[in-house]
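Hi U.,

Before I forget, here's the chain from the pilot set. I'm dumping it here mostly so it's searchable later in email.
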Amino acid sequence: MTKLPLAGVTVLEFCQYLSGPSAGLRLADLGARVIKIESPKGDACRKLAIEDLWVDNEDSLLFHTINRNKESYAADLKDPLAMVKIKALISQSDVMIHNFRPGVMSKLGLDYDQAKSINKRIIYTEITGFGALGPWSKKPGQDLLIQAKSGLMYTSGNSDNPPVPFGLAIADIICGAHSVQGILAALIRMKKTGIGAKLELSLMESLLDFQFELLTTYYRSDNLPLRSETNNGHTLLGAPYGLHKTRDGFIAIAMVPLNSLAQALNCESLRLYTQQDAFKKRDEIKKIIAAHLINEDNAFWMDKLQSADLWAMEVKNWKALVGEEGFQRMGLVQEIGVEVNTTRCPIRLNNARLYSNKAAPKLGANNDHIEKEFGLI
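Structure:
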């Protein structure tokens, strides 16, 4: 295995919950040394359980999924003696990430100007819910609430459904990924010029960027995107795009010409429509497809669609998915050191998958060796 690309980069993660820690996780997977700065009580995510699942009856499984491959340094940021050590760490680090509410780091004496005075090369990354300034800045930056305000909930489900939230913390994870992109760009510049950077990201901006197709279309047409009455898949795409129920399951059908679909399914009613009808008569066409597909099982229709080389896929749950050879050959699952199976980094480097079985740290587990190594004692 070649040396990981971020080997030698030190990241201080002043973060809790998901957005900032997801950024730290990816940087760690790529070789950075990520030191998680925690209060003496720890990241609140340690006690945020998913399905009431815990590791060693101590920290939540969720904490372990997003904080593996890191170190923990516990410090009371309101203690002047602890702050002397934190500032010494900043002077020897490359990146800082925090996702505290606007104004918190400034009160602690750790805003960008203060960090820059300690280390002019520092790449300071600030994640908030809605930005540090403006009328929304004090609103709670929680994922479900961001989804609610962003319009995203009107893109899933059918038109007669109520707003449908995305089934996971999409704003947190996307904002974390955007943070990594900005950090990598700033690291490249810093290595070339010695100049640091302040990066500002918000969950709201990341989620709006995620919807760039929809917003661009809205600004051009002044029309709200409309979900299909049935079998919705994408508010901006015509029939047959969407999920379609069969006798024993569901099939996803993507961008497929209507004449090709009619021929593959042997559906006479569908032959009456042209491609120009795909959006104008979207719901009418989808109802015809629905009435036709319900008569046979998934396997029957998938055989017809695949034989015609049309874009279609069975809708799977995780239990069915993980048993398939394609999933197993990806080698996506790894066991970390606390008998927890989780996903590896999805990036491959020089044909090698990036695995790390280093578990999430116990609170303050690395204080002693960090203080010795960085000369804090």
